Amino acid sequence: MAAAQRAGNVIIIDPFRSMCDANTCSIVKNGRSLFRDTDHLTMDGVQTIAPDLSAAVASAYQSIAQEPR
């Protein structure tokens, strides 16, 4: 992540921000599994982090739109 941040043109999304509280990270939320296996989110998992993903895409688009042509 440090290398990506130094590049200056990378938006880092921390999915744990949406899936964890101060003490635990959930694999189930509201009775729905967030993970299909150890590495892949279910649709419920994706919906949990979707607001952060949408904000990152909007921010990247704004940056691109403001670049001189």
The average pLDDT value, as a whole number, equals 87
Task: Count helical runs.
Answer: 3
Rounded Rg: 15 Å
Total strand segments: 2
Strand % is 5-15%
Shape: elongated
Order of helices and strands: HHEEH
Largest sheet: 2 strands, antiparallel
The stretches of 5 or more residues where confidence is low (pLDDT under 50) are none
Strand order of the biggest β-sheet: 1-2
Distance between the termini: 29 Å
Percent helix range: 40-55%
- Total count of domains: 1
- Class from secondary-structure proportions: mainly alpha
At a glance:
By secondary structure, the protein is mainly alpha-helical. It contains three helices and two strands, in the order ααββα.
Topology:
Elements: H1 2-7, H2 16-19, E1 28-29, E2 32-33, H3 43-66
Antiparallel strand pairs: 1-2
Written account of the structure:
By secondary structure, this protein is mainly alpha-helical. It has one domain (about 15-65). Helices cover about 50% and strands about 5% of the residues. The protein has helices spanning about 1-5, 15-20, 45-65; strands at about 30, 30-35. Strand 1 (about 30) and strand 2 (about 30-35) form a beta hairpin. The longest helix is centred in the last third of the chain and has 24 residues, at about 45-65. The relative contact order is 0.14. The model has no long low-confidence stretch (mean pLDDT about 85).
Describe the structure using short key phrases.
69 residues, mainly alpha, two-stranded antiparallel sheet, 3 helices, elongated
